[in-house]
Protein 1
Amino acid sequence: ARGNMVWMGLARPLARAQFMLIAFAFYIRFFYGVIALATFATYLISLAIADKNLRGLVYLAYLSLGLVVSYLIVGLLIFHDYRSIINYILVNNQLSFGNSVDMTLDVVNKPQTWVAVGVCALALNVYTLLQRRRLFLTVNILFLLFLKLGFSRTDHYLNYFVLPLAVILLLPLFDRSSLSRQVVIISTICLLYLSISPSYPGAPTATILTKPGINFRVAYEDRMQDVYKDFRLTPDLLNYIGDASIDIYPYNNEYAFANKLNYKHRPVFQSYMTITPKLDAMNQEFFESSSRPKFILWTAGINCNSAACNPFDSFDGKYTLNEDPLTTSSIFLNYHKVAISKGKNGVPLMLLEKNKVARKYSEIFIKNEKMQFGKWYNVPMIEGRLVKIKPVFRLGIYGNIKNLLFRGGIIKIKYKLASGEIKEYRLNILNAQSGVVASPLLDSFNYSGGQVDQIMFETNDKRYFEPSFDAKWIAMPEPKVNIIKPIFNAFSNLPPEYTNIKNIQCEGSIDEVNGISPPFSIVDVSGGFYVNGWLAYSTQAGELYDKTFLTITDGNGKTSFISTRKENRGDVAAAFHKKALINSGFVASIDSSVFSGKSKLGLAALKDSILYKCDQFEVNINQAK
């Protein structure tokens, strides 16, 4: 009763004033506003149900009307432009949706994680049902929101699930009852477990106490100069840019702060957050307008740590040119390359300058095709053009529910190059419909890359998508691209020079032939095909062979030898606890025209002039016509 009297005294002024707080929270950070609105709205609904009258709903109506007016007023004070208020809602709505679908990680949370989450949910429900029934709806709605925010991209669970739930625990913490204390203790143990134990292999854990403090006495610009000192550009590049406007693409805007550039960024200034076609179209419009910046500094991907890396390899196993296709297509149409330079750790950078006349996005139609997951499709070729495919993936009922309550599925694209090598990248589900690179697979700022003969779309969740989909093949007018012809490994009908020969059981593995893993039956090959694996002289001693060879034995028993290239195999070194085994990997690109019909693929190696032939490796291969 005392609680009801207190509420009756506070409800009216709360309903009149809280909408201002909620509106302001939306502009601090959008999801703060969502949480504030959910908190007050569900509480007012709970009061209406508990008191069995419409007073709580009347206050909710006051709250809603006041929130709309307050949102407009606060927005105009901040932006001075009503269109920005609308765009603010649009951008945040798209970011929220896109994050749930495409900012996911290809990982599985540990069962213990869900046990801890479930125990927290149970404890809070017991507490609210027995002691705070009017908070039951509010606490559960907030719990679901935090679960969605924290685990839709699963590596965000510390900031968006653990910390908010710790705040909710302040409710039972200040209750003087045995039950509330038990709830606090149990839930705190669960949250502590989530904080210090990785939710999945490699997941982040709480490191708040080990982070160094920030000296706010130092001016912001000076702090940025020190923090980003490794992102300095070369003097000749800075002289060329001068004080002209510039955007940094796809991310790494540290270059703008480290070099005090005249930074004029696109609406969504980090490409990995351009995760829906609407957001992508906003960037497209920006780069096709007269207000676009004079320069764009195209930086290498986050995973690029050396001068030899592929600058288009992005994080999360994605490919930069597939992340925001409308943005990149508009950049290629309206900018031209003026310099290639070096950035942090010597990674490549590309400076683009705008063309005199802005052009609208365009594409060249090739053909339509019906497709299915898990099947290879031939890529059409147009000389000098970048060929793309525009798939329209359809979600089933399960997929839509999964997007709403949890997180999206995973789609990957496999590229079978003319060399036989198969490369795999994660795709953005939503933006894929705007164009996925097919061929060539560019791997340098010279706009060159290997020819792709076939592509395949794969998904690990057959319930999430419908099995078939429509696709359209297109070609881009810009940039003009160069296809690099495959370089096959050396083939010889004669064995390498040796003084003795031994047949042994080797330590190693043929991991893949043309992307197919063991157990092998008959592998059909044509054109170029690719083989990778590892081989060691002694895993116990961490000793390697001098040279590793693939062998091809025809039906008459004649054996030919193919040289291989080394490949780092950190997994092998870790498995046997021998650092030297990191160099045990091998790869080879083979021209299938060097043999005919059915043959057997095997392994051999040279050590101290002794040729070792591995008896246990024998893969049946057939040259497909």
Protein 2
Amino acid sequence: MKRREFLNVGLAGSALAAAGVARGSTPDRAGGRGPFSDFPPLKLDETTIAELQEGLRTGAFTSHDLTEAYLRRIEEIDKGGPGLNAVIEVNPDAREIARILDEERAAKGPRGPLHGIPILIKDHIATPDRMATTAGSLALEKALPPEDAFAVRKLREAGAVLLGKTNLSEWANFRSTRSTSGWSGRGGQTRNPYVLDRNTSGSSSGSGAAAAAGLCAAAVGTETDGSIVSPSSVNGLVGIKPTVGLVSRSGIIPISRTQDTAGPMARTVADAAAVLGALAGADSGDEATREADVRGSRDYLKFLDPEGLRGARIGVIRSFFGFHDRVDALIEARLEDMKRLGAILVDPVEFPSGRELGSAEFEVMLYEFKAGLNAYLAGLGPEAPVRTLKDLIDYNERRRGLEMPYFGQELFLQAEEKGPLTDAAYLDALKKSLRLSRTEGIDAVMDKHGLDALAAPTDGPAWLTDWINGDHFSGGCSTPAAAAGYPHVTVPAGFVFGLPVGLSFFGRAWSEPVLIRIASGFEQATKARKPPRFLATVDFRNP
């Protein structure tokens, strides 16, 4: 069934059963190249939020129907079938939330573009409901946060159905120097829906796999450095890492108060823009958001523009190329597309060396992680077995077989050795990180060349999941925007051996409208995204 035909089919009753994979079908789990795509076409896999809203408006289906269909899809694709393991927990209240929102729609009309739309959120974002908030750790399985994260409150106010929570790289991938992305003690290993033996990257691993496979209309991830844009790239998604301060961090398990943010991960720029508008806004509990209502927007859909590349001055950072010849060839082709569509490319632009920035950024993270995590854990209820980072280190040692079967907690140990945020070493590192990423980095380059955005390959293709050696990142461009706290958007650019690769656009603080305009123009011109095929392993006959 084609994507748009779905909107003409009522999802009530027996039609719902067809929304997931056909019952009785089994994938090739033993290896080989057999695609999981022998299954009947999946109605929810590429349907957009706008199309879902049209179906809700016309009465073709209800939000309750839609929620039921996604829950069935999670059961048959994520828990069974190819076994993506992207969803760590479904919301037992999702159906009731959807029913109430259906009644409200009938009585008052929709609240906005997310009314009745099922969304998954990372298990890093607090909800004091019947779901846990654990960062993937068994230590927090029974711990109850005191209140919703502010971002969750914004989603609820927008009328979204919180469908469940997604698996992640445990503690947002800030536990070990040899970690495997997408693995957590509580959730196990998430698998890439394009090629199942490949990694999802992280730390928003489950959000990436779930959104790519159509287990939700869109998902929310979090990023400190690369944790939205990298899993978006390797899972064939649009990811928006907002300006730090556009989306509140209150109630999100922290790494860095300088760099942390939540953001959308979706199959289209429009879907990501719709979710971003719902998330954005000032929060008195997060000082960084004090300008969000003035410099941000509640409606990022208005910045979509199919001609968004025309006249845009975009700097190409060649220092982020060269880590993979096929990625280079793919991005070169996309740059030619951009020029053909009216973009003005300044190629190359020089960017400061990343080694010095990376060292300063890491020092900042170690200090801020200890301070932020201690504050978060101290605010949990009495049932929490850990209250400090030191408690957590001891907990992991006592449960080494469950929490550290493949890799350790070297980063925890390094962070625990750090002092308070008044230490000169921390203040010097923070000053250096901001200077290199902002004043002498993104701002300097964009001022020099009069640019609207900077562009580079987001990441390499997904690597084989390896619990022995850990992750095998080949390259990426996330650090400058992450350290600066500036916005970064990745858009699907094509494939290398059937594995998605994204193109990044990033720029000045609060430049989300410009980046969304450029990204939407690129997306509409190239239409590079294709749905996942659930291959058992890479088909090397098709590079």
Protein 3
Amino acid sequence: MNKSSSKNFKGKWAWLLAAAIGVSSPVIADPRKESLIVVTASGPNSMDIQRSGTNRPSYQVAVNMYDRLVSFGIKGSGNQLKYDSTVIKPELAASWKLVDDGLAYEFTLRKDATFWDGSPVTADDVKWSFDRAVSLGGFPSVQMKAGGMTKPEQFIVVDEHTFKVAMEKASKLTLPDLAVPVPIIINSKVARANATDKDPWATEYLHKNPAGGGAYMLENWTPGQQLIYKRFDNWKSGKLPQMKRVIVREVPSAATRRALVERGDADVSLDLPNKDAKELEAKGNLMISGTSIDNTIHAVGLNVDFGPFKNKKVRQAIAYAMPYQKIFDAAAYGRGEPMWGGTPGDVSATWPQPFPYDTNIEKAKALLIEAGYPDGFSVPISINLGFAQWTEPTAILMQESLAKIGIKTSINKIPGASWRTKALVEKGLELHLKNFGGWLNYPDYYFFWAYIKGHLFNSMNYDNAEVKSLVDVTLPMAVDNAQYEPNVKRMISLAMDDVPLIPLWQPTLEVAMQPGVSGYVNWFHRQLDIRSFTKE
């Protein structure tokens, strides 16, 4: 790009973004080959993934600004790269081994790794960080619990560069659980210096001031507008990224995001609506990556604390009243894997899999009569406006179909910023559209989060003693254990019969990129790992 065209590009980019989000000051990018401009619907609400109420876009901060001991491998080719849940590779840990008769992992840390301030990364930092993760409570502590890590005593400093995780019992999830975004390694010296008696884990400081040693540092964060990363040139836990600077702009309008990437004013548009992905793919001017998201479904949640939904037959009636194919065509544009129309009694140990329900209005009516609701009832359908591209058309089609069996509905539109509190923390939404993806690619892990009473993603308040018992026993169990498959099949069978959650389809994650941009990886956390991006 010559000097004149570069100047034109900067002016055009600044003008378009200012018009899109009301920003008066333009952003001047670094030379284009070493910088990346990303547009996304919403951005992080915190720099600290372990803080209560942190949203999904904040996961990108954990991934790019902090190291973990280990990470997952990558599989695929071209612009269809995806993380590999079967491969664990080094990050901050140079190596590891099982010790103590298989009841502990011992990690040897890289000796050349430093935090951004130049101080060395030590086993003391790892212990403080892990102690924090299991002590703060909420989502981070439950995530650590999934891998059998529940108390600080399990984290042991052997020497400056040797760290041990002791397990109460061997678990298949312990090592992969250290590769998810939660167990970040924090500069404990900086954190302690900014802690207080009332805030011993420095949550207020780390909320706005990341203190890590990851591949990228924070240049600027304006909540609701943009996040700018700058490369940490002394990063040692992987290959130094090509991108020196990455600008992540929040552009709520899907139409504006599409326009920016089509005109070349953005390099990457994350989480495209399926309609846009289908149309842009047909045009052929951009690279479109649309790969399925492991262990994830778009679904209908039925809160069993709501009167009619206490009755299983009512829940089954709702499942038979869903206009599945219409929803899939209108909301997903046929992109993804249908999760309806399974054969009754034919259950496998895979997840997700089609449930044995299809659209059958007469059967739905009969079940409502059996349940004592011949005239139906009224209930709102709550949707997350942050995902309006699929929730809104789905709710409208549901409303039309449920009316056929006497269920009167209104659509309760909740802003994305409030959704997590309303749906997942307060758990007060009766009939709602939801999405959940399990970070560790095992059926029992999904059930741990979504089907156990009190756990964050069980917005249905479902409580089944047998399911809980099965999950408790199966979660640490090796997949080749003779009881693993029968246990998984049983919990899935119970979920299909009780149906507090009605799967609709397994979605794809759609990302558009300019020609010449490569290295995008579809990660389970659905955020960009900018470390792998390159540009021609």
Protein 4
Amino acid sequence: MSFVISSCNDYLELIPDNVATVDTAFSLRNTAERYLFTCYSWLPDHGSITGNPAFMAGDEFWPTLNNGLTSGSSIAMGLQNVQSPLFNHWDGFGFKGIRDCNIFLDNIHRVPDIEEQERERWIAEVKVLKAYYHFWLMRMYGPIPILQENLPISVSTEDALVSRRPINEVVAYIEQLVDEALENLPLTILDPIDETGRLTKPIALTIKANALTYAASPLFNGNTDYANLKNKDGTQLIDQTYSVDKWRQAADACYEAIEACNEAGIILYNFEQPSAGTVLSDITLTKMSIRNSVAERTDLNTEIIWGNTNSSMSQVLITPRGWDPDNIPAVLSGRYAPPIELMDIFYSKNGIPINEDTTYAFSDRYEIENANEDQEYNIEINYPTIKLHQDRELRFYASVGFDGGYWYGQGKYTDTNNWVIKAKSGQHTAINNANNHSETSYFAKKLINYRNVVNGSSYSQERYAWPIYRLSDLYLMYAEALNEVDGPTAEAYDYVNRIRERAGLQSVQDSWSTYSNTPNKYTSQEGFRSIIQQERMIELIFEGKRYWDLKRWKRASTEFNKIITGWSLYEKTPEEFYQAQLLYQPEFRLRDYLWPISEGSLLRNSNLVQNPGW
């Protein structure tokens, strides 16, 4: 982590950001390297619960009522605006990052004391960063200007007023930058001490695959809601005719990225039995495979394609204040929490949606029942909790902390001696502070490293680089693209089933055929699409993927308008505690699929057109 931070800070102190210092910046290899790190420094803070809009602008996390809305949850509540847009990356890091990339590419050839192979690698890295910044802006705003090069000081006023370019052109430019960079990128990082987080061939190809998948999705592929989104010269910015060929291109790009990952030794993560001590059950091993696919250190995580070493989750903000009844550090808050509504997403223990499972009493899921021996390793036996928490797939127990649920790790590393979340009023995980508590009584366990330990009044954290991309994400993108091209195929089933197998589930075919009230669902393109989308919602929950996926599928208008509820925090008995309370009523409108461009930007550039609804 430190190599980016310290180097960028040194550079910024040494060389102010103005034209007169460009000669100095590229006079030597060392100063040029600092400029390279400056190009990296514009990467978004992916792991910031408040700095990444994907966490709270949708419905994955909600703040305590007493703390008020964050910028993200303000967007979720319909409070975005055009005067001073929240997360205004158009006027912020997005195009500023691209500008610095262009400065680097314009000047790196002038550095005298650098080997040519290293120069070419740096150029390749910056081209991919430039591609990623274009993709990030495209995902937010849709059609954007393409900044192939910085404008010279002598440019005319007319030429300085750039226009937005059609989505097809933006994606083609992202592809071009990645393809130009590939031959000069390493397959893997050979010096993890100094270079972890630097770009590689698998990362570049995954960025390309992600951009093509987004462009092929309903939001940008034949979306007639944007029929009137045109430049002032009449240029149509989003295609009005659906093209299956876009999905074919996405599938090809995903396959190419997967092949590069295979060659680089990137595989689905699996938690190994400890070398000494108590032998763990298969259930615990599976749950830890799921948790650690995200929260394990990058050097130990075989699944990470790209980890942002300059960003990590603020675990104190999502960690329950009390796993240890005798030690409740004030630093822990758990103030950002998932709502009740997300709990329905996870499958039953049979690997299908709980409203489809013929053995699961969906309508009775809020009834209270003591956990029995079948819940061993997941819930404290005989603890009264609701049926919603019982007989679920292991990704539920790996991902979510809930009343009565076991919590492996945090100083306890056996199957038989785990912390237990107890969230009713008066219990050790319950509300005891107006600001620092979970408003819903749920916790994002998956994002909390199992080595973190409460020690008296302190809390030690094992930080990990935020996983921008991991292999299961890429597998599901590939399966989705294959299904959109040819419907369900053996290959598409295979990539979904690889992830299900890691989660301890039967194959899609076996689970639906045996337990579902729609046993043939997986055999149709529409049915398998629904399955893949739910797999993404489960596998990638709390990782900031749900927000963008629901938007690109055009499902956000339905999902982000649902009420947000939590359990009755101040009640002591199960019967009173398990009464859902309305916390928030979000508001998502058609305009919210794309970010607004600030009024200031529109005034400065008369060639720009605003996104629909703003």
